[in-house]
Amino acid sequence: xxxxxxxxxxxxxxxxxxxxxxxxxxxxxxxxxxxxxxxxxxxxxxxxxxxxxxxxxxxxxxxxxxxxxxxxxxxxxxxxxxxxxxxxxxxxxxxxxxxxxxxxxxxxxxxxxxxxxxxxxxxxxxxxxxxxxxxxxxxxxxxxxxxxxxxxxxxxxxxxxxxxxxxxxxxxxxxxxxxxxxxxxxxxxxxxxxxxxxxxxxxxxxxxxxxxxxxxxxxxxxxxxxxxxxxxxxxxxxxxxxxxxxxxxxxxx
Length: 253
Hints:
2 domains, globular, Cobalt-precorrin-4 Transmethylase, domain 1
């Protein structure tokens, strides 16, 4: 039966790959890639470098065309479900055409597969459909959250404090930072949504391209560095054609 490794490879530094990840890579026949077009060149370069460092054997790369997605839908959740279903169709077709019945495939997932990544949901969808048989396992990776804290040399919370992990969309539109939670980690934010939070008594630790040669870091009170983050982010987005960033917000104790 086909087997699929879902391998977390860290936030951008090839050295983030664990021994467990390397062992799984060395057992892989076919690596599948489903990257967003705007990011594909640099993301593929990191994955290629990872394979160059650790693999000697015979393996192949198979690029799967990513189905189109409406970025401004009326019903966000419904559109994401539709997009994931289309991705599942494309991945299932690739498994059938590119992987032998007893072959081993893998996805090299940015960060950790458990955190804001659709790969595991899509594989579960394929299992539920029953149209193709395969097994899969998951290799954890260094998250962008861990990489952010390490880059700024900070803990994610003070003694005994709680924290949440949320998205820019939730932070901006849903009041996504409860008043009794001191720390908020914000991901998938294309709009600097910290702008919608009262900056009084709020500090921010922001990072982009974590673990890569392009890494950018800014920290300080939101009232003082918020505009700088917006400027640096916009300039980097133009310069590289894409950006992945994350930040921690913290209320005064």
